[in-house]
Amino acid sequence: MWRYIVLFIIVIIFFNCTNQNNQVLNLIYNNSLIIDGENHFNNIAQLTFSGENAEAYFSPDGKKLIFQGHDGEDICDQIYIMDIETGIIDLVSNGQGVTTCSFFKYPNANKIIYSSTFLDDSACPPKPDYSMGYVWKLYPGYDIISADLDGSNPIPLTGSPGYDAEATFSFDGKKIIYTSLISGDLELWTMNSDGSNKKQLTDRLGYDGGAFYSHDGSKIVWRAYYPQTEKEISDYKNLLSESSIRPMALQLWMMNADGSNKKQITDNGSANFGPFFSPKDNQIIFSSNMHDPKGRDFDLYLINIDGTDLERITYFEGFDGFPMFSPNGQYLVFASNRNQNKPGDTNIFICEWK
Length: 354
Fold this sequence. Notes:
Layout: H1 2-11, E1 41-46, E2 52-58, E3 64-70, E4 78-83, E5 89-91, E6 99-104, E7 111-116, E8 136-137, E9 143-148, E10 155-156, E11 164-169, E12 175-180, E13 187-192, E14 199-200, E15 207-213, E16 219-225, H2 230-241, E17 244-245, E18 251-256, E19 263-264, E20 272-277, E21 283-288, E22 299-304, E23 311-312, E24 320-325, E25 331-336, E26 347-353
Antiparallel strand pairs: 1-26, 2-3, 3-4, 4-5, 6-7, 7-9, 8-17, 9-10, 11-12, 12-13, 13-14, 15-16, 16-18, 18-19, 20-21, 21-22, 22-23, 24-25, 25-26
């Protein structure tokens, strides 16, 4: 769903490190890309240079990234794995349908997961209709796929007739958390890594998605939109009946891994998404447009898990999102519009974190 968040911008205009494994990546840095105020960035390297690329997530050894991307308006997102040091990129989805939300299986990276519509239709689906405003399209054909590291042996883990996507592994590799419409609403579910033992964790009317486990597996952070007024509820249900959602005021929430003790982390009336736990699980890094009254500019922020001590991390005028810390805490990867080759490009960047 990353591409819809990036398109949102275009449509309405255009820690402490934990040195568990002291890894130094051999990268070509371009520190002119660091904006004044980005004080946590020691060095920065651009890893992709054209197209719309995002949701890049580290392998357990910190040497590879799995991400989705496409280059060209008539091409759908597919899933790729990049060797960070060599820059070699391999296609690991089958090139059919549209894909989203990929992740390595931890702790050994012997499997990957992603969502795809290819089982329903091998063709690239039509783009969303924005005549009624900006919306995300929840393609009903999305199912969660497990595959070997090279993309072979794809196996569906879900098979419901509605949207199943936004899946990530727990860091012990035992659980997957994902968003599903199987109950009739967009709720968070968990399942075992083989697709068994599916369990619903949320049940409030509205959208729950984009969830990640904490490193110790005890917590889950996610983004949510809960309509309040009669008009908001009516609009939400009408869009949902058309397999769509309007992602405006997304707030961050956190709960225990079993679904208990749900707590709201942000409450700013803005669009907050892409939350990820810091290496010590005491903070959350995420993207938000809270600083921009027009809602056009997204930057990275850091906040304590109790919602205190908000800190702005990036200052680029455009899109910065989908952050993830490397397993050893030394690096941060994120997607950004900075240094575009052409309007609309979103690329992947990696920086040393200080």
